[in-house]
Design a protein that fits this description.
The chain is built from 36 helices and 31 strands. The protein is of the alpha/beta class. It has an 8-stranded mixed beta sheet. Helix 35 packs across helix 36.
Length: about 900
């Protein structure tokens, strides 16, 4: 018989797959002897079966009943009893934290009879009836699917007993049925509602955003209720063992007296800082600090803790490894190394390239003289500028047009997730560092200011009123500083971040830059993948080298033919004979040589892979339509010749036409001119005492025959330049693998190649039959929404399809040429997940934009550690 129910005392944190993260951590705290209200967990297996069949497993009811009997025995109370009744909470808990995305139902067990028993046992009729009111409202919305506003319309009285009758009528009117008085029915229907919430729209959206698999399901945690709303000696709060925004040690969190946990998370009332608890309830404060230390030492990480104090008794309701900002992630990881809780390998494993990239983003310039419009809680640091919008739909609509927006709400709810994703920042007038807005924004790396009470948000009127009574309409531009917790009218200028300055100068100026430097140093010490940059100018090359690039993996020569040089390309295309074409190429030669010489100088001693011209030649000519208009209205002989050339060279699908190696084979002298420019630049650097290491890359090869012809031509030019200069010019010659046929025949192509470099942009386009420029604005959003793509294959490599082509090319290429050097120079070279694939596949290096180099270095180190860990697991 499959087991679907585990008491908290039977589990542990290593059972998150089965018990979900919340259930596993409740079990772990129970094992540590912390004061956890007793309860049990319904496993994710039960959820998956329910979602697959529409019914819970047959054994589940009996197992829940057995666990419930044991819970009643331990507490001495009966669920739904008429005298001091046992009340339960029913909460979701997936393997990965999904804050606020699924359902919770509190106060299960209350009814018309048991509410009287609760009033008698607690001595507070108001408390008892208010708890009943909460149950009706949560049960109606969550289990029965009643619109929240139907309850809000009835909520016009302060008498909770009257509200109970009103809310029961809402349920009758909306469903045609009575609220169930049987506590067992309440419990089982609540369990099913939590199961169903796994597939709610907001949960699916969150999983897509966070790349959480859809087939995990959620566990359900059933736990004895404890109440923070029993008076001034009660309360509820959230605590962090370190500051989740900065990583600094200290006492961080929120506490709300005489309130339940949902009141804190919802941000409906503004809490006091956790440090205030020391004054309000010293014994509970000391116990909490002690438990926080126990948990951080046990988990060896920042812990996020939920707790309740009921009539002076502290209860620990949840712990998890806390979400944190990118800055906090680096600082905490290295601080734990210094405290000897973890090693450098684990510190590196706990941060990611995406987090490092966030730290490189700009911040606002110093604005001491700029008076803030309002102050709030600095919930998630960074700086953002955008136009005010008041709902998620508007945020998504405007962002889709390219406009930067700030989502402004009284407080956010899980339904606001799409707007938070679309916005540059989130601003709320209620809530604190542990409100929904703060937690979700930090997890996304979004700028967030919460609890800006000075601002009045009128969603219906779509206005924001400042303390000085200035009314700001939707579309007004604001600047939001998530580090300082301030809001400013208008667009403030941005400046580089400390990490950006460190990467440019190498100077460490504080705990953050020191942590980043140490992490990168360790990543460099363990990684096997080299990291190069895609750079086309000496300036880009210099920046790449400052950021730690070990060479240039892609220098695109076509970018050098733009601007004033476009006329020389036109001259080559329009040349009437071989003499004219050769004259144009000879005019281009010194310009190309100077380009290459400058880049080789910046990358002295490091490899520079120079790709021969790739795009179709007509891209260097004026637009066909514009030319036709000019010829029709103001004809000139030159324009007529240009139009004739454009017409002659027009292709229906130029990206699959005359480009890349094909140009070199049909335009006489083009390859020779570029190779000569490279070779003469090498000679120039050698004579200047440099150490140039140029490599020549032939694009869009589909057959070894193409590469052999171009290689022969290149080698003739290299030999001529070597003889004329008296210096040896030895440039490796390789090719881009960017067509499926090239990948599938890589064993043959490797016969004529010194290296391969995967052009994964084109390889993805040709493997999928997609035009990147078109599909990302057309059907990709629908594919992502329907789960066909978990993420765009142009952002993260498609391992099953394109990845298989890469593996085939690597295996067959090296079978032919064991010394074949292999890299990647497409956009995937800077994507964290793709970097792990390239490491596993055995590539020698990745190449990406200069700004992505630090993140790629870090991810290459993490990939090496992950590979080492996988090897150790396999060995055991």
């Amino acid at each position: 018989m499959t087991r679907y129910v585990y008491e908290f005392s039977e589990g542990g944190r290593d059972m998150a797959d089965l018990l979900g993260g919340k259930g596993a951590n409740l079990a772990e705290m129970t094992r540590l002897g912390l004061p956890v209200p007793p309860g049990f967990t319904v496993t994710t297996d039960a959820c998956r079966e329910y979602l697959a069949t529409g019914e819970e497993p047959g054994e589940l009811a009996a197992q829940v009943a057995h666990a419930l009997v044991e819970l009643e025995r331990r507490t001495g109370r009966e669920l739904g009893g008429r005298d001091n009744p046992l009340l339960l909470s029913v909460r979701s808990g997936s393997k990965f934290s999904m804050p606020g995305m699924m359902e919770t139902i509190l106060d299960i067990g209350l009814g018309d009879a048991s509410v009287l028993g609760l009033a008698k046992a607690t001595g507070s009729e108001h408390f008892a009836w208010d708890s009943y009111r909460r149950l009706l409202q949560m049960y109606g919305r969550t289990v029965l699917g009643i619109a929240p506003e139907l309850f809000d319309r009835r909520g016009s009285t302060d008498d909770p007993a009257r509200l109970v009758e009103d809310f029961k009528q809402v349920i009758r009117d909306a469903t045609g049925e009575e609220f169930p008085q049987d506590p067992g029915a309440q419990l089982y229907r609540s369990i099913r509602a939590v199961f169903r919430s796994w597939n709610s729209e907001r949960a699916r959206l969150y999983r897509r955003r966070e790349h959480i698999p859809d087939d995990l399901g959620t566990a359900v945690n059933i736990q004895v209720m404890v109440f923070g709303n029993r008076g001034p000696d009660s309360g509820t709060g959230v605590a962090f063992t370190r500051d989740p925004a900065t990583g600094a040690r200290g006492v961080y969190g929120d506490y709300l007296r005489d309130a339940q946990g949902e009141d804190v998370v919802a941000g409906i009332r503004n809490a006091v800082p956790l440090a205030e608890l020391e004054r309000l309830d010293p014994p509970s404060y000391r116990q909490l600090i002690d438990h926080m230390g126990t948990l951080e030492h046990h988990y060896r990480d920042l812990c996020d803790i939920e707790f309740t104090i009921e009539r002076g008794t502290l209860w620990m309701l949840q712990t998890r490894v806390g979400k944190r900002t990118a800055e906090a992630a680096f600082r905490i990881a290295e601080a734990l190394v210094d405290e000897e809780l973890i090693g450098e390998d684990e510190a590196l494993a706990r941060v990611g390239g995406a987090q490092l990239a966030r730290l490189m983003f700009p911040r606002f310039e110093a604005h001491a003289e700029t008076k803030p419009l309002a102050h709030g809680v600095p919930a998630s640091p960074g700086a953002a500028v955008g136009a005010i919008v008041f709902d998620s739909a508007e945020a998504v609509r405007r962002a889709a047009t390219g406009e930067k927006v700030i989502l402004v709400r009284r407080e956010t709810t899980p339904d606001d997730l799409s707007g938070m994703v679309a916005a540059e920042a989130v601003l709320t007038s209620r809530g604190g560092k542990t409100s929904h807005a703060a937690v979700v924004a930090r997890g996304m790396g979004k700028v967030c200011v919460c609890g800006a009470e000075e601002l009045t948000v009128d969603v219906e009127a779509r206005t924001l009123t400042a303390p000085d009574r200035t009314v700001l309409a939707e579309g007004t531009v604001l600047s939001v500083d998530g580090t300082a917790g301030t809001v400013h009218l208008g667009a403030l200028p941005l400046t580089d971040s400390p990490v950006g300055r460190f990467l440019d100068t190498g100077e460490r100026d504080g705990a953050l830059t020191d942590a980043v430097a140490r992490t990168l140093e360790h990543a460099d010490s363990v990684r096997h993948l080299g990291v190069r940059a895609n750079a086309d100018t000496p300036e880009d090359a210099a920046r790449a080298r400052r950021y730690g690039a070990e060479g240039i993996g892609l220098c695109r020569t076509e970018h050098m033919f733009l601007g004033e040089r476009r006329g020389l390309i036109e001259a080559m295309i329009l040349a009437a004979d071989e003499t004219g074409r050769r004259a144009a190429l000879e005019a281009l030669l010194p310009l190309q040589r100077a380009d290459f010489s400058g880049i080789l100088a910046e990358m002295d001693g490091l490899p520079v892979t120079i790709r021969l011209i790739d795009p179709p030649l007509h891209e260097f000519l004026p637009d066909r339509t514009d030319l036709a208009v000019r010829v029709a209205t103001r004809p000139t002989a030159h324009d007529r010749r240009l139009l004739a050339a454009v017409e002659r060279m027009h292709e229906s699908n130029p990206m699959l036409g005359l480009r890349g190696v094909r140009l070199g084979l049909v335009v006489p002298g083009l390859v020779e001119m570029q190779v000569r420019a490279i070779a003469e630049a090498v000679v120039e650097r050698l004579r200047d005492g440099g150490d140039p290491r140029a490599e020549i890359m032939v694009p869009l090869v589909g057959t070894v025959g193409e590469l052999r012809i171009v290689r022969a031509a290149a080698e003739r030019v290299l030999a001529e330049v070597s003889k004329a200069s008296g210096l040896t010019v030895d440039c490796p010659i390789g090719t881009m693998i960017e067509l499926p046929r090239a990948a599938l025949t890589a064993g043959r192509i490797a016969e004529a190649a010194d290296f391969f470099s995967f052009g994964t942009n084109d390889l993805t386009q040709t493997a999928w039959g997609l035009s990147r420029d078109d599909v990302e604005a057309s059907f990709f959003p629908a594919y992502l929404a329907q789960g066909i793509f978990a993420t765009s294959p142009f952002e993260t490599l498609d391992r099953d399809g394109v990845g298989r082509l890469v593996r085939i090319a690597v295996e067959e290429g090296r079978a032919t040429n064991p010394t074949l050097k292999i890299g990647v120079c497409g956009e995937h070279g800077g994507d964290p997940d793709s970097i792990h694939f390239f490491h596993d596949t055995g590539l020698d290096y990745v190449s990406c934009s200069p700004f992505r180099v630090p993140a790629a270095r870090l991810e290459a180190g993490r990939a090496a550690l992950a590979n080492r860990a996988d090897g150790a697991s396999a060995a055991t």
